[in-house]
Amino acid sequence: xxxEKKYLVNQLPKDLDSYSSFELEQCYLCKNPTIRARRKxxxxxxxxxxxxxxxxxxxxxxxxxxxxxPLTRESYEHLKEKADGRIISKxxxxxxHMGYQIELDIFxxxxxxxxxxxxxxxxxxxxAGFRPPSWFGEDVSGDFHYTNSYLSxx
Length: 154
Description:
By secondary structure, the protein is mainly β. Helix content is 12%, strand content 53%. A hairpin with a 2-residue loop joins strand 4 (43-55) and strand 5 (58-71). The two termini are 28 Å apart. The model has no long low-confidence stretch (mean pLDDT 91).
């Protein structure tokens, strides 16, 4: 089970180059449920993701079941040709913050200049106690407009 919060970013951290990063490219074959093919460096992954939440009153939290399977480069390239919408490309940075790991995505191509940050948690209670750094903007957790699958179709 994946429990995460997602934020817009007001400004990039000043020391961004000091954090580890890698390039991501991903395409979507289906949006409900989400079926994604991704290139992460030299790794290729097929992901099946079904949304479990938001539900009830907690619309500020994303929860999903996620299954990943390895792909070959050839399989990835074949699936990429069948993409439903835009191919998303971005640089992902891993930034430690108070015992958590922030995944900061800096988008390229059609979304150049757009930034999103995500933080994953073990429990809903843990997510409720999270205090974001000052460079975070609006909490957009649970808003489908900020999912990569939605962005690929815009």
